[in-house]
Amino acid sequence: MINEQIYHMQKQLIKDMPISLRPYEKFMIYGSSALSDAELLSIIIRNGVGGQNAIALAQSVLNTNHEGILNLSLRTVEELQKIPGIGKVKAIQLKSIAELSMRLISTKRKKLVSLYNAQSIAEYYMEQLRHKQKEHAILCMFDSSANLIGDKLISIGTVNSSLVSPREIFLTALESHAVYIVLLHNHPSGLCKPSSEDISITLSLVKCGHLLDIEFADHIIIGDNIYYSFREQGVITSSK
User: What is the arrangement of strands in the sheet containing 227-229, beginning at the earlier edge strand?
Assistant: First the structure.
């Protein structure tokens, strides 16, 4: 009986549903927090297809690979288009929503970033890096007052390795007039234990920094909601 009711609601046009169940009206009456992920997504999708209303179509997006709302970030435009009812335009809209969400989180956290607090740096880049399927290396640059002045994607590696060039790192730092730099990279496995290569490149970058008078302040590895800081672990110590 319950399954039949769900099936009927999936086929029913949203305009024919009770007002209390229509996403737009529910949003206006109770606020965004009262809506499920599927209901919020249906407002973006707007129209259903093939006998499914927008809520049912949104649920199909969420159910793909059982990743829920993370599908908006994890799935490519091409992968989203494989879901019946999701064309190129809708796929791009969904990816745009995911990107805006990450930028909102990033902008809010940027004010809290501190050169001397590895956790604040890790949290700022966590959502950007923790779902990547390949290793991404990002260089963070700070001025003489330890304010974050910018960052740059240095490399994209394979599933288990990034290709980091010390030359590119310090050229970028010099061009930006950075006084302190921090390197971040993710581990697609979700774990953040440093590899022998991670340790080797860290020690090399510390030495290069000493020669160029640019302090290599930390190397942070991003896992799945966890991080590893070489500074916190005592591998890197301040020289200034």
Answer: 148-156, 136-142, 180-186, 215-222, 227-229
pLDDT at 108: 63
pLDDT for the residue numbered 68: 80
Which residue is associated with the tokens 């301040």?
238
Nearest alpha carbon to residue 184 among 198, 174, 203: 198
Give this prediction's pTM.
Answer: 0.59
Question: What phi, psi does 215 have (nearest 5°)?
Answer: -75, 120
Which among 1-5, 48-52, 129-133, 197-201 has the top mean pLDDT? 197-201
Please, are residues 47 and 38 in contact by the beta-carbon 8 Å criterion? no
Assess contact for 183 and 220: CB atoms under 8 A: yes
Return the beta strands (E) in 127-224 as ranges: 136-142, 148-156, 180-186, 215-222
Phi, psi for residue 49 in degrees, rounded to 5:
-160, 150
DSSP state of 155: E
